[in-house]
Amino acid sequence: MLHFVEPRWLTLSLLCVVALVLTGCPDEGVVCTSGLVVCDDTCVDTRGDTAHCGACGTTCSTGEVCQDGACGCRAGTESCGGACVDTATDVSHCGACGSACAAGQVCESSTCREGCSEGLLRCSGACVDGQTDALHCGACGNVCPDAQSCRAGRCTYDVVAACFTNGQLVGLQAGTDQLGPRREFGAGIQALASWDGFVLGADMTNGKLLQAPGGSLGALVEEDSLGVVSGSPNDILVDPPHVYVIDSVNNTLQVLRRDGVAHGNGLGLRTVGQLNLGPNTSPQALARFGDLLYIPLFGTGSSNFQHGNAVARVDISDPTQPRKVDTLSLTGLDLKPFDSSGSMPLPFSVTATRTHVYVALTNLNPANDYRPNGPGMLARIDPATGAVSAIDLGKERCLNAGYVEAVGDQLVVACIGEAIYDTANGYIATSVRSTGLVLVKNDVPVASYALNPGCQPGAPGCMLSVASRFAVSKGAVYLADTNAGRVFVVEVGDGTLTERRGYSTPTAKGPALEACPVDPRRPVSNAIDVTALH
After folding, report:
1. Nearest Cα to Cα of residue 353 among 283, 406, 305
2. How far, in Å, CA of 231 to CA of 88, rounded?
3. Which residues of the chain have pLDDT under 70?
4. 351-357 LR contacts (CB < 8 Å, sep 24+)
């Protein structure tokens, strides 16, 4: 029987015989366009394919490229010992093949130079710490904006203040005391804290714990519910991996933990526990000593302060199940009242040292419009025994002790003072006395600083200053002013307080910082809280 051969098949078979010697016989179905050849059943351009350079199976070495069918080094590199290297940066071939740098040196611009210690960056010929260098923050050439510092390789402010009446945050740089731009943030920020480069703000209007990066501030990245809207979340304690928030209206302690999936690149906080401290307790602040939280209870006038004037102790050995242990009464202290009408401790703030817990006592008379009727005081608590004693801060320098914080082995107390307010015209202070700072060492007041508004009280346009909370950064106190929106800067030494930005001494480096300028639509400006980023 005769067989007829398909012409196309015959053509390919003949071509196969011719090409067999060069490239092998392709499958019948593989037909390449002009300029390509078949290698491993695939059409390739042997002029530029590093796996088939010049011919099928000819592979270029690591670092080489295939150009016009020949393997060679990329532009800017050359072949040294069979490998392509950049002689401008290669320590084994610095400037030329075989020219090796000595141990510990680096190759920079084809020249061997001394290398940098571990953890440092070499930028522009110098060794820099990318964790703290504001000109090379996190990477060479990443310059931090004015008023910002480099912390942990990120550009952030050192200190941030909350402008309650303006609905803004403003950052500043410690040391230079330079202010950054104000940023819109929240609707009623009442307390601040910071953690891992983020600022936390308790928004009383929306019942949210807001977060913003410590550099951009206004870029809101995460919101966590604080439970009931229209409460008063007025203190935040960061205790990694937990955050504790006190609400004085809802009488609650809320516990959040950083273990969720962050949204918006925030901290990823999630509520894991909550405790109600009881009706009419009005908790104000919190500090940790061991496994206990110490929480001052102010109390409420509607209950004749029966559930206040005390400090609650809460066990947080299991933060998901906070448990109230007991309550330490403050009513037995000698408050040294000015007259027979009496006074109440009415605790407002708390801090812990290595050995004791200290509570700021406002020492007010609720029957007399909550005006001071005794000197500002501290309650000193011995955690081992629960014993409480009083420290008199002196009526001439401190009335209405509002905030206390440990600074090294000393205590700094902010005294709100006795202020008279014009409630008919926007709650503006018309007079104030004994407002400022007191420094305590070894439980004895050793120095004080009086706030000066820088103008004559009563003069047109003169805004008086009323001390609020403060933060400590680089050895200085940044004290907020709740009447005129200023921030005063006072350096803390061993037993000394020295004004750096204010109006009390001619040696000050400048006036108080106008952190929260008075809005023409509002007669006052509440710089309500300050936090230092660490």
Report:
1. 406
2. 63
3. 1-29, 228-230, 260-264
4. 351/287, 351/404, 351/405, 351/406, 351/411, 352/287, 352/288, 352/289, 352/294, 352/406, 353/406, 353/409, 353/411, 356/380, 356/381, 356/382, 356/383, 357/287, 357/289, 357/294, 357/311, 357/381, 357/383
User: Which conformational region is residue 215 in: left (phi greater than 0), alpha (psi within -120 to 50 degrees), or beta?
Assistant: alpha
CB 256 within 8 A of CB 269: yes
- Tens of pLDDT, residue by residue over 400-428, are 999 999 999 999 999 999 988 887 777 78
pTM summary value = 0.80
Segments of 86-241 assigned E as strands:
105-108, 111-114, 121-123, 126-128, 149-151, 154-156, 159-163, 168-173, 178-184, 189-195, 198-203, 208-213, 222-225, 233-239
What is 160-532's CATH topology?
Methylamine Dehydrogenase; Chain H (2.130.10)
Q: Which amino acid is at 58?
A: T
Number of neighbours of residue 148 by Cβ within 10 angstroms = 22
Is the distance from CB of 451 to CB of 463 less than 8 angstroms?
no
Q: Answer yes or no: are the C-beta atoms of 511 and 452 closer than 8 Å.
A: no
Q: Read off the tokens for 88.
A: 């401008």
Contacts of 438 (CB under 8 A, 6+ apart): 376, 393, 394, 397, 398, 401, 412, 413, 415, 445, 447, 448, 449
List all residues 6 or more positions away from 382 whose beta carbon is below 8 Å from its beta carbon. Answer: 356, 388
**3-class DSSP state for residue 368?**
helix
Tokens standing for 465? 């200053």
The three-state secondary structure class of 391 is strand
Q: In 298-441, where do the E strands start and end? A: 310-315, 323-329, 347-352, 357-361, 364-365, 371-372, 377-381, 388-392, 401-407, 410-415, 418-422, 428-433, 436-441
Rounded Cα distance, 307 and 331, in Å: 11
Joined together, the tokens standing for residue 438 give 């007191």
Do 200 and 193 contact (CB within 8 A), yes or no?
yes
- The domain locations on the chain are 160-532
Distance separating alpha carbons of residues 257 and 24, to the nearest angstrom: 66
| Count of H-run helices and E-run strands, the chain | 1, 44
Helix, strand, or coil (residue 131): coil
Q: What percent of the chain has pLDDT over 70?
A: 93
What is the C-alpha to C-alpha distance for residues 155 and 245, in angstroms, rounded to an integer? 27
For 22, which DSSP code? H
Which tokens in the block code for residue 138? Answer: 């996190």
